[in-house]
From TrEMBL:
Residues 38-229 form the DUF362 domain. It comes from Blautia obeum. It comes from the Bacteria. The lineage of its organism: Bacteria, Bacillati, Bacillota, Clostridia, Lachnospirales. This is DUF362 domain-containing protein. Pfam families: DUF362. InterPro entries: DUF362.
Length: 363
């Protein structure tokens, strides 16, 4: 496989598809030494069934583990940490990874419980989890999906699971795009297997899956994300961290240079252009909010919109770390605890936010 190639396969036998893609990609040759520690990084953002469109299907990881074993690789590990507000241990269970690890006798590293070290990532010092140092060859297994703050999330942003929770909060205070790009200088992903089975094209934690039944393989995370932008009807310039990562030398952000190959049947996909995030974002004043908090607010607003209640809300909803210690009328999350009205929690769930705002509107 060449650096500029993206291989795509469509079907419903996910483990088999994965193994066939890895064969076609010559992954064994790319890894080389059979004694290398191969790290596998799925997306277990929250305890949500992969069918909801937010987390990596375990069948894909099973396909990777079987391929590695069949090709004589002796050492592998899975490493991941959920977003702030949820426990990796819960996602590990709900998403089917406990059973996976037992079936394939592979160790799982919960990076939420990991120590960290500081690394200079092209001029930006960032904290990275210690378990990353154990990995000689990193296979990233992100989900192609939308994101309520950055519009898309796939290969580049999935590396956030390899930093401690304190650094995840810090990322949001820095504006997300710059630290995401610089993090990918500090953590090199060697190979990518994209779960494009049923990602939610609006929310990173799932709930509105769009079934596409595709899996991709690639080597360049920037090119992968540039292709995701194209698939979801965005320009690369709409997602600043993609272009910045390219400028930092992580990969190529010019999608015209991609060699995209569909293996097997070419199934045309009609990806909807509707973006619920855009439709309800005008009701929000956001300053440095964490993904979980903002990610729960947006679907709550969409629920109100569907019921015809959002148009009755005439006050902007404040959310984010930028409101700590400040006062105001209406806020969401503990960062707005000094507001006259606020939804408690760090983060509050979408149902809690929905009920809180529904009651506020009724009064």
């Amino acid at each position: 496989m060449e650096k500029n190639q993206i291989f795509i396969k469509t079907g419903t036998k996910y483990k088999k598809m994965t193994r066939e893609l890895l064969e076609e990609s010559n992954l064994a040759e790319l890894i080389g030494d059979k004694n290398k520690m191969v790290g596998i990084k799925p997306n277990l953002v929250s305890p949500s069934d992969p069918a909801n469109g937010g987390t990596t299907h375990p069948e894909i990881v099973a396909g990777i583990l079987e391929y590695l074993k069949e090709n004589g690789f002796k050492n592998s590990m899975i490493l991941e940490g959920s977003w702030v507000g949820d426990r990796t241990a819960d996602a590990f269970e709900v998403c089917g990874y406990r059973q996976l690890c037992e079936d394939y006798d592979v160790e799982f590293y919960d990076t939420q419980k990991d120590k960290s070290y500081t690394k200079d990532c092209c001029g930006l010092e960032l904290k990275i989890c210690e378990s990353v140092k154990k990995v000689d060859f990193l296979i990233n297994v992100p989900v192609m999906k939308g994101h309520c703050q950055t519009k898309i999330t796939c290969a580049l942003k999935n590396m956030k699971g390899l930093i401690p929770n304190t650094e995840k909060r810090h990322f949001h205070s820095m504006g997300l795009h710059k630290p995401i790009a610089h993090l990918n200088v500090g953590i090199h992903q060697d190979f990518i297997v994209v779960d494009n089975i049923c990602g939610d094209l609006d929310f990173e934690d799932g709930g509105n899956p769009v079934v596409m039944n595709r899996i991709w393989t690639a080597m360049d995370p920037v090119l992968v994300d540039a292709y995701v932008c194209q698939q979801l009807h965005y320009k690369v310039s709409d997602v600043p961290y993609v272009k910045l990562a390219g400028e930092l030398g992580v990969g190529c952000s010019d999608i015209t240079k991609a060699d995209i190959r569909v293996l097997g049947e070419d199934v045309q996909q009609n990806i909807p252009e509707r973006r619920k995030v855009v439709e309800v974002a005008d009701a929000v004043e956001e300053v440095d909010s964490c993904s979980a908090c903002y990610g729960y607010l947006i679907p709550a607003l969409d629920m109100l919109k569907q019921e015809g209640l959002l148009e009755k809300l005439h006050e902007k909803i404040c959310i984010g770390q930028g409101y700590r210690g400040k006062t105001g009328e209406l806020g969401v999350g503990n960062c707005t605890r000094n507001f006259k009205h606020h939804a408690e929690g760090c983060p509050p769930t979408e149902n809690q936010i929905y009920e809180f705002l529904k009651e506020y509107i009724s009064k």
